[in-house]
Amino acid sequence: MNTYISLLSYTAQGAANIKASPARLDAARKMYEANGAKLKEWYLTFGQYDAVVIADAPDDETAAKLILMIGSQGNVHTETFRAFAEGEYRKIIASLP
Q1: Pairwise CA distance, residues 88 & 19, whole Å
Q2: Where would I find the beta strands (DSSP E) of the chain?
Q3: Owning domain of residue 87
Q4: What tens digit of pLDDT does each residue of 43-58 get?
Q5: Which of 22, 23, 57, 81 has the maximum number of C-beta atoms within 10 A of its C-beta?
């Protein structure tokens, strides 16, 4: 499984319906599981972004599909990064010429 970090910002719609946010998070977790992925951690943050999600997905296509499905609901804007764990990082560095 690959790890992905998503930075979320509430849209005006998402902020106006903030009390529904926990139910949307539960639905997103189920959506990840139904697609063979796992929403591992969710953090409420303040500053430039409103939340951070750490998730695992089997491949980039699945991760992209999930982010597009969530974004299409209109409650958040997302920015997603592929993350490499320390072991993966060490393997990449060791393979450098």
Answers
A1: 39
A2: 2-10, 38-44, 51-57, 76-83
A3: 2-94
A4: 999 999 999 999 999 9
A5: 57
DSSP state of 75: S
CA dist., res. 87 & res. 11, Å (int): 36
Q: Which residues pair with 7 in a beta bridge?
A: 52, 79
CB 85 within 8 A of CB 3: yes
Radius of gyration, alpha carbons of the chain: 15
C-alpha to C-alpha distance for 23 and 25, rounded to whole angstroms? 5
CATH number at residue 89: 3.30.70.920
Report which of 65, 43, 66 is spatially closest to residue 54, judged by C-alpha positions.
43
The tally of domains found in the chain comes to 1
| pTM, rounded to two decimals | 0.91
> Given CA atoms 47, 19, 80, 2 in this order, what sign does their dihedral have?
positive
User: Of the candidates 64, 16, 25, which has an alpha carbon nearest to the alpha carbon of residue 44?
Assistant: 25
